[in-house]
Amino acid sequence: MTIRRVEQSEKNLINGVVEIHLKTFPGFFLTFMGKGFLRELYMSYCKHELSGLLVALGEEGHPIGFLAYSENVSALYKFMLKKKLAVFAWYSLGAFIRKPKIFMRLVRAFLKPKESKRTEEYIELASIGVMPESKGQGVGSSLVDKLKEIAENTSCQYIALETDAENNDGANRFYVKNGFVLNSTFETPEHRKMNEYRFVL
Prior knowledge:
Oligomer: single chain
Structural class: alpha+beta
Helix content: 40-55%
Order of helices and strands: EHHHEEHHHEHEHEE
Distance between the termini: 25 Å
Strand order of the largest sheet: 1-2-3-4-5-7-6
Radius of gyration: 16 Å
């Protein structure tokens, strides 16, 4: 298994990451936004100078896992809105037509740059996924280890992530096993109970 950063020119790998996302997160908000939206989202992680997209490649060179991260989430979202507002708006319109109830969720997504501001320096582990057939082989832990290596070469104080607190025992155990400590629990406007974990550098 090889783990490395995805370059913005590697569209096949980005498409592979999208496929892993779709299989890892069925029924989630970002999945509902569609392949095109996800492709632009993960492409933005590749293009933004303080963000990145890691991929785990199997023996035949096919993507079997990924991890998206950012040192400055607020700047990343501003970058996406500045560079690709029309594209994201187009995909958002399609999602709204399919399901009008998501309107407020879309509004909050476009306001994310303001919500994401923090005074502390940290890396956010935004998304991690592994192909169902590759789970249990250490792919996720290897991706997290690579992120820890990257984080050690920055001025960030910790790695942070958020995950569902309920009906999500596997993910919560995974983060604890990899050295993350529960920092807080909160509820989203959609009434999802979330856990925030941190790995102190």
